[in-house]
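Need C-alpha cells for this chain, all 593 residues.
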Amino acid sequence: MNFINPLGFIALLSVPAIILMYILKQKFKKREVSSMVLWNKAITQSEGHKWRQKLKKNTLMFLQIAAAVLASLALANPFISAGGERLNYIFVVDTSFSMAVEDENGSRLEKAKDDILNIISDSPDGTFFSVVNLDGSPETVLSSTNKKQAAQKAVMQLAQTYGGRDTEALIPILKQLQSENPANVIIFTDKAPEEQIENASINIYGKSGVNYAVKHVSENNGNVLVKAAVYGKAGGTAPVALFGDGVIIDTKDVEFTGANESADIVFSLNGETYKEITAKILSDDILSEDNSFTYIPQVSGVKKALLVTEGNIFIEKAVSVIDGIELYKKQGTEGEIKGYDIYIFDGVLPEAMPKDGHIMIINPPEKSGIAEFEGEIDLSGITVRDGIAGGNAESLSFSANGVKKLATPLWAEEIFVSDGITAAYAGENGGIKTVVFGFDLHNSDLPLKKEFPIIIYNIMSYFSAGGIGTSGYIFAGENAVLNMAPKTVSAQVISPSGVAENVTPPNFQYSLTEEIGVYTIREDYGGGKTAESYFAVNPATEGESDTFNMEESLQGGAAENARINTGMSLKNIMILIMLIVLAAEWRVNWRGN
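Here are the C-alpha cells for all 593 residues:
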C-alpha cells in the first residue's frame, strides 16, 4: 500500500488528544437512589471529581479513536497496487495566441495536437487520458478516461485562442487531477511555464523568426498614437498603414533601433472623424494576426442633457462646449421630467427622480431625502480625489462657503474632500450614475479655477461612457464591462461573425471575447428606439507576440516514460467506514443518555 498524501497522517495527533481527554476527566452517570445509607458510593462519587484518573475502558473513546484514524487514512489517500503498470497521461495543451505561429508545416498548435493524437493511438489499451486547455482561463476538457476515441475527440476540438495564458491557475487544476491517481503531466507549448510544475515534461514547439506587432492605438484631439514592436530581428524599418472605417488614411515607415524594440508613430486624422480606426504593419512575418490593431474612438453617440436651474451660467457654459453633449435648459421642476440621458439639478429636485438617465445634483435642498448631510461648514483647501472627476486635475485646490457635510453612501466614493469632510461624491446605484456637489457653485471659487471645465468634462465623460468605456478596445479573453443607459430595456452583443448574445442591462460583464474584431452593443430603449455602440477585441500582444524561442533544447520530452502502477485508491472506502463508525458512536452515546 502506498500513500499519495502522507501529510494526512498529521491528523493522527488527534488520537492522543482524545485519550488525554478521557484521562483528565471521566464522565459519571447520575443515578437516583432510595437511600444514602451506602456511604461507600459517596467515596466512589468523590473519586470521579479528581482531575486525573486511571484510564477505563470506554466504548465511546474507542469509536472516536477509530474515526480519527480513519480520517487520517482518508487524508493520506492510500493506494493499493494491482501488480501491473499502465500509462496515465495528463495532456496540457497551450492554445494561447503565440501557438498560432506558422512555422513550417502548419501552426504550433496543430503540430502539438498531431503529436498528442499519435501518443493516444500508440498507447496500449487501458491507458487513461486527461486533457487540459491552457489559455487565459485554464480548464479541464476531459478527465481520466480510458476511451481513446473520446480522448482524440477532446484534443481535436481544442481551438486556437487569441489571448494569453495563466500558468498560475493551471497548478491547482493539475493537483486536482492527480489527487486520486498519480499521472505524468506533459505540457505542449512554445514557452516553458513561469511557475515550477512538479512531475511534468515539456514539449516545446516553434523556431525563432521575425514577428512585427501593433501593441496599442489611441486617439486624442485628431492625432492617433500607434505603438509598434519587432521581435527576433536587430532593428530595421517596416511600413505602417492607418485605416479609418476601412479606408486608408496614411502610411508611414517605422524605424526600430534594435531587436525586441518598440517605437511610436503619430498620424493625423486631418480633421476627419471615424467610428473605427485600424493600424496595420504591412511587412510579412511569422504571426500575421497581431500585425493589425483596431480602436473605437467613438464608443457612444450624442447624449442629451437637461439642466434644471434658476440660473447657473458656470455649469451651462462648461457643459455646452463638450462634444457629444446636447444641452437643454428648464426652469423649475413642474411637469414630468424624462427623455434625457443626463439630468443636472442645480439647487432643486423634482418630487419623483427620473429613472431613464444619469443624475448630477448641485447643492441639494434640505430634507430632499436624496442626498443626506449633517449641517454646513465653510471649507478651504478642498482637493479632488483621483478617479471619476480627477483626471488631469490633481493639482486643484479651492474654497467654498456653506458646504453641506455629505454622508457618502456605500455605493459611492468621495471626489471632493477637505479635512475628512466630503464636499462631493459620485457612484452608481441601481444602474444610475449619480454625482452630488454639496455646495452652491456661486459660493465657491471652483468656477474660477482652470481645472473647472476639466472636472465637468470628466463627469460628463463618466455619464456618457457606453460600450466598454473610453478605452475603445480590450484584448481577447478579457471581460468587457458594458455600460448601458439606465433606460435600456433589453440589449444584445453581436460578435464580429454575427453571433448575437442577449445581455442584461444596464451593466454586464461580457466574457465571450475570444473572437478578434469589432463587436456591436445594440440597446433597445422601448417604443421602437434603439442605439448602437461598439468595442474592438484585439489579439493579446503582451507575452505572446514575442515568439523568439530561447528554449528549443526542451523540445521532445519523456512521454514514453509516463507509466504508473495500476491499482485503486482507498480514500472513498476509508471515508465510508469512518461515517459508519461515527454513526455507531452517535448511537452508543444516545443510548447512554
